[in-house]
Automatic annotation (TrEMBL):
Function, as annotated: Catalyzes the conversion of allantoin (5-ureidohydantoin) to allantoate by hydrolytic cleavage of the five-member hydantoin ring. Catalyzes the first step of the ureide allantoin degradation followed by the sequential activity of AAH, UGLYAH and UAH which allows a complete purine breakdown without the intermediate generation of urea.
Name listed for the protein in its UniProt record: allantoinase
Family in the record: Belongs to the metallo-dependent hydrolases superfamily. Allantoinase family.
UniProt keywords, alphabetically: Hydrolase, Metal-binding, Zinc
Catalytic activity: (S)-allantoin + H2O = allantoate + H(+)
GO molecular function: allantoinase activity; cobalt ion binding; zinc ion binding
Signal peptide (UniProt feature, chain positions): none
Cited NCBIfam families: allantoinase (TIGR03178)
Length: 514
């Protein structure tokens, strides 16, 4: 007798109950679990609805469109001169009138610092601030968590720590440090564990367990990145004395530690230029047919729009796979306006003069800078040394994730920037950098990651303004902006609406597309 013959009579009596159980479990019980999991994830009870306004940013241009959302996806984008009617049995229509409906912003440069430095910033507070700022996805930097994210184990630990604490989707850059830069196994493990790419520093990072890499270290990682089709992001400063020592002597007397000019002089443009020169040399390997064809080099937070930018332009023109970002604070502020001791403006590379700010805007508008990020880099308030006002000793990093959209809009619209250009720099281009094909535009089949905002509404960030990031020290304090976020949707879930967040944090870690 075969095994099958033995089982047959046994199964005969059980077949129908088993089948009923399986069908019942699949149809009734499983959806129940999913529904429960989802409860509290959205301020809107509907899972099928339509957003409408006269100014929707689509891939066909800006105009009156309805955007239909079902579950987590956009299922249609339709041009129509009037809002569809809300009818019984039809999906709910949310008519936002003349407000802008746009793809959610994607911020590929943020420091959430959890686990390990959660008193600086955490998943919960950082992503609450992001959601309130119209940001639907961020990619987190491998520092200043503790430990820094330089191995597979550290990344897995970090992803675990984010569970139930993120209001938006969060991806992760892995860290490239000298210890592992020449060890393909460690790098491949890190990329396999979910790092969307790598990040390194060419100067001291300020964090002991994240030492600087040389151009050679970076070069060694490129063939590994090429295999995965992922980028390396590089902090582009090297500690290199400026060619003209007189440069350091300009400005304020060296004794005045509260002088912004003194801080500015301590990190001259030549640091940025020299780092980028070295970096663009190794980026040649990414050219078609090169040993790292398929890898990509991304320059983070460009602050100098003169010599440094010229070198990047040249590398692009010669076929290297290179992109560059600048940050909202370089576009919003100028060195001359930074008061003595105002260390909330300290970041590296430093905010330069207003002439340079205009050149950064020109470079964006001319298509020479690819995208914008916040480089949200908080610390505890005491590390900013606000009373002492010592620019050299204070922690360098600006908290601004919640204000990226209004700051970009206010300063950009004054210089002729269109809403579509802003959307490209804040959504489409970063989606491309991080390889997020389901995000970045409002199109059929894409994730329903959406921000609705009012370009005309203005507000002052004062002591009463609700700030959601953990340490409420920010360069944006005291400034007036236009561009108010009305509501934010992440994969179809309404996570923020005018001062209110969804009861639960239901964002997901972003895993690489392979
Ligand atoms: C790479 O790093 C791992 C983990 O530290 C180590 O076991 C391995 O020997 C290293 N490989 C090389 C080639 O150095
Ligand atoms: Zn940073």
């Amino acid at each position: 007798m075969e095994l099958g013959d033995l089982l047959r009579p046994l199964l005969r009596g059980w077949t129908i109950p088993l089948l009923l159980f399986t069908v019942g479990y699949t149809l009734v019980y499983l959806p129940q679990i999913e529904k429960e999991l989802d409860e509290g994830c959205s301020l809107l009870p509907d899972t099928h609805f339509v957003l409408y306004s006269k100014r929707v940013v689509t891939t066909q241009g800006i105009g009156p469109y309805s955007v239909e959302v079902e579950g987590e996806r956009i299922v249609s984008v339709t041009k129509r001169s009037e809002a569809p009617k809300s009818l019984p049995g039809k999906p709910r229509v949310l008519d936002y009138g003349n407000a802008v409906i746009m793809p959610g912003l994607i911020d590929t440069h943020v420091h959430l610092n959890e686990p390990g430095r959660v008193e600086w910033e955490g998943f919960l507070t950082g992503t609450m601030a992001a959601a309130a700022g119209g940001i639907t996805a961020v990619v987190d930097m491998p520092l200043n968590s503790r430990p820094t994210i330089t191995t597979k184990e550290h990344l897995e630990n970090k992803i675990k720590a984010s569970k139930g604490k993120i209001f938006i989707d969060v991806g992760f850059w892995g860290g490239l440090v000298p210890e592992y830069a020449h060890n393909a196994t460690v790098l491949e493990d890190l990329l396999d564990a979910g790092a969307l790419g790598l990040k390194s520093f060419m100067c001291p990072s300020g964090i002991n367990d994240f030492p600087a890499t040389t151009a050679k270290d970076i070069q060694a990682s490129l063939p590994v990145l090429a295999k995965y089709g992922r980028p390396i992001l590089v902090h582009q400063e090297v500690v290199d004395p400026p060619a003209d020592p007189a440069h350091l002597m300009q400005g304020e007397p060296v004794s005045n530690a509260r002088s912004y000019q003194r801080y500015l002089n301590s990190r001259p443009i030549s640091w940025e230029t020299e780092a980028v020169r070295q970096l663009m040399e190794v980026a040649k390997d990414t050219r078609s047919g090169g040993v790292a064809d398929g890898a990509h080099v991304h320059v983070v937070h460009l602050s100098d729009a003169t010599n440094t930018l010229s070198i990047i332009k040249e590398a692009k023109a010669e076929g290297s796979s290179v992109t560059v970002e600048t940050c909202a604070h370089y576009l919003a502020f100028a060195a001359e306006d930074i008061p003595e001791g105002a260390t909330q403006y300290k970041c590296a590379p430093p905010i330069r003069d207003s002439r340079n700010r205009e050149l950064l805007w020109k470079a964006l508008l001319d298509g020479e800078i690819d995208m914008i990020t916040s480089d949200h880099s908080p610390s505890t308030i005491d590390l900013k040394l606000l009373e002492e006002g010592d620019f050299l000793k204070a922690w360098g990093g600006i908290s601004g994730i919640q204000f990226s959209l209004p700051a970009t809009w206010t300063h950009g619209s004054a210089r002729g920037m269109s809403i579509e250009q802003m959307s490209n720099w804040w959504s489409a281009a970063p989606a491309k950098l991080a390889n997020l094909p389901r995000k970045g535009t409002l199109e059929f089949g894409k994730d329903a990651d959406i921000v609705v905002w009012d370009p005309e509404a203005s507000f002052v960030i004062d002591g009463h303004y609700p700030i959601y990031f953990k340490n409420k020290v920010t360069a944006y304090m005291g400034h007036k902006y236009s561009g108010k976020v009305i509501t934010t949707f992440v994969r179809g879930r309404q996570v923020f609406e005018e001062g209110l967040h969804s009861p639960k944090a239901c964002g997901s870690p972003i895993h690489p597309v392979v």
